[in-house]
Amino acid sequence: MRKRPQVRACSLCNQVGHNRSRCPSRPNEFPASPPPRTASPRPVMHFFVHHVNMAAPQSPHILDLKKSRVDMLEKIGAASPTDRSDSLYHFYHEKKSEQPIFQEIQPLATPIVQKLFPKKSRQTFLTVKKIFQYFNDFTSAVAAIPTQIKNQVFRLNSSILNFVAHCIPWKKLAFGLSALIIILIAPLQAETYYQNTKLAVGDISANSTAGFMALQDSTTALMHGDIASADRTIGDAVDRFQNAITTMQNQSKILQTLAAVVPVLGDAVKSRQQLLLAGQEIALGNAYLIHGVNESQRSVSSTLTERLTTISTYLKSALPNYEQALLNLNRVKTEALPLAYQQPFVEFKNLFTTLSRDFKNLSGLSDALLEIFGGQGFRRYLLVFQNPAELRPTGGFIGSFAVLDIRDGQIANLEIPPGGPYDLQGQLSENVEPPTPLLLLRPRWEFQDANWFPDFPKSAEKIMRFYRKSRSVTIDGVIAINGSVLEKLLTVIGPIYDAKRGLTLTSDNALATIQQIVESTEQRNTQKPKQIIADLAPQLLDYFKNIQPANLLALLSNLETALTQKEIQAYFVNPTAEEQIKTFGWSGNILPTNSNQDYLMVVNTNIQGQKSDARIKQNISHQAVVDADGTVMDTVIITRTHTGNASESMYGAHNVNYIRLYVPQGSELLEASGFTWPDESKFKTPLPSIKKDSDLASSEIEINIDKQTGTRITNEFGKTAFGNWIITEPGQTTQVQFVYRLPFKLTSQTNLSKNWTNFILANYQKTLGYQLVAQRQSGCDSTIESQIIFPDNFVPDWYAGADIKPAVNGAFIENQPFEQDQIWSVLAKN
């Protein structure tokens, strides 16, 4: 029996003979075939691509596709906007941050969507689609902002419930259920991430805080020489930092997500990460240094050079850690730290920057130190002790000296003549005429007055020459030590006791006590006024031979300060050692300057003023006025006040001072005033047999004598010097003034650069750059201030230097202690 063929009924009209696609009652919204193409060309649709910093996750190519234009994609072209007000301008420029995260978008009328959902559910599906587009950003956002989690979860759940109850056909429940599970789980996972991150950040903060406290204790102990305490605390600091870093590495993805989503929180996280890494690097560097100091002290028989080599080796190992720590500290944003820690961080950063630089300098100096301390063989040095109370060009009168023999860091011999430099007078075989001002003392130039030149290497060569002509012995170098260094030393080692005289010398009374004994009639009658220095020397030597780790770093710190302030100056015959000393600024040489830099140095020479400089307070006031054509006119006023009493022995004498002002070579003296000359009858007349000194003739080239004031004008060491006399009586104030024109003009091509400032300023049009290099005289108690004045139509654009501040048309340097060489720079624009 043959079966009857099956006849299908149309699913729309329930009639047989046709199917849904051919049903006459079929809606027009689903055409069976695309409409026929017309011959007329269709217009091209333009779309704009804009690069926006905070771009949305969806494509910036926005198309307005309409139902009846299904072939539109074939006619899409690209165009650039010509008017920012165009209605098709990128919608992101009008988007407001406060708009709801779930925006309504134009529904896409595609058969797939219509077939999957009834018409009433399409809009809800598109909303859910939009939710998926924002899902990743939302997950990260709720991880960073816990209050936002509650709001967004509430809104998500409301949309989901509405979607499930009214929109999703139950026969399509599998798809909706999958979406529901994903959306419900995401906020819970974000909340878990947030809680984990909160715990991780707390753990990092606790460990890093404890680590920095231990590091602070360790660094303080290290700088005070308490190596044992520093060693105990450094281990705890390293462990704490390592724990924090391990936690940070385990949570790195979460922290990176936080930093990407919330910029403010990101700055805090990144800054604290860098601070944490810096702490670990500093701790490791300190550990190296502590270990090096301990190793250097293990062997009692080790020499000074061996100890220096050991410390240098470990210091070089620590330097990479210190340098990396500086990089990390520079990446920390101070404002991202808690307010209570911002100021301590700035102070710590400045301190550590200086400390790191000093350690780097010491490491670079190690080879020179080995040469200086006899690591390469026997060396002999002259130690000259200068007294700033009787000021001389390099720091003070040479009241005593010592001959030091050293080999492999061990002092082989130390000789301190009890008569001081006067023991050489009868042995000096050379008769040369002194500089003219020194004729107020004696007709012959001798050892104790050899430091006439403000350039210490030149004075050192003259000192060595006089010693060689007296003892027929060569010298490998000269080290000048001011009396203030003894005070610094006693602050480290404590008081010393002179059993012979029953005296206890401290940092407060040592200089005055020694000065009183040296100048006493009793000592002068024995012809051994410097005997007390010779008696105290063995105690000091004993201290250096057996120096304890607790005092080593404190001693090095005081030594570095004394070298920076030129309380200690050194010259070595060995060119490598001398060049190294110059590099660190410890040679006391006149600083070289560029042809367009201003320079200033005031040099005082006390001649027959006894020890009156101990009661002199000096102020240097400088002013530079720039004319419209770039000409610079300088005025320097030097004020000296004698605070002593005429009844005081030594300190109450008239201060008789030959003053020299060193300025850029070629400067023209225009005016000078305020000078007082000593009695002409007091000057000695050189004997006919005395010869002119060749060093003096080549170093001081006389240019002119000012007829009105008698000011002597010379060229010395690449500078022009103006020299004259000033006498200040006890209780009085004197003042001298120099007005001069600089030998160059400021132009827009002026280059403000100096190799030791690590700054090179590019040339700008319509700008004027001015730079002043001010050099301090060793041993001089002085303050300094300055004004730089540009033409009225110029304003300061950039400035640099200690305590410099901008003015309306220039800058000024506030009155400040003049303790070391300074450089000030100003850039003014029209």
Draw up the topology in text.
Blueprint: E1 45-47, E2 76-78, H1 111-116, H2 119-144, H3 146-167, H4 173-223, H5 227-250, H6 252-261, H7 263-298, H8 304-330, H9 339-364, H10 366-372, E3 379-387, E4 397-407, E5 410-415, H11 456-471, E6 477-482, H12 484-493, E7 496-498, E8 503-505, H13 510-519, H14 521-525, H15 531-545, H16 549-564, E9 568-572, H17 575-583, E10 598-606, E11 616-626, E12 631-642, E13 655-664, E14 668-673, H18 694-699, E15 701-705, E16 712-716, E17 719-728, E18 733-745, E19 753-754, E20 759-760, E21 767-775, E22 782-789, E23 795-800, E24 804-807, E25 810-817, E26 822-829
Parallel strand pairs: 1-2, 3-6, 10-21, 11-22
Antiparallel strand pairs: 3-4, 4-5, 6-9, 7-8, 10-13, 11-12, 12-18, 13-17, 14-18, 15-16, 16-17, 19-20, 21-26, 22-25, 23-26, 24-25
Quick description:
With 830 residues, the protein is α+β, with helices and mostly antiparallel strands.
Shape: globular
| Arithmetic mean of pLDDT | 74
Helix content: 25-40%
Strand content is: 15-25%
Kindly name the structural category: alpha+beta
**What is CATH's topology name of the domain at 371-583?**
Aminopeptidase
CATH class of the domain at 371-583 equals Alpha Beta
Total number of strands: 26
In DSSP terms (H or I, runs of 4 or more residues), the helix count works out at 18
Q: Reading side by side through the largest sheet, how are the strands ordered?
A: 15-16-17-13-10-21-26-23
Radius of gyration: 42 Å
CATH-defined architecture of the domain at 371-583: 3-Layer(aba) Sandwich
Please give the largest β-sheet: 8 strands, mixed
How far apart the termini lie comes to 113 Å
Residue windows where pLDDT falls under 50 for at least 5 positions: 1-5, 29-150, 156-161, 163-190, 252-265, 752-764
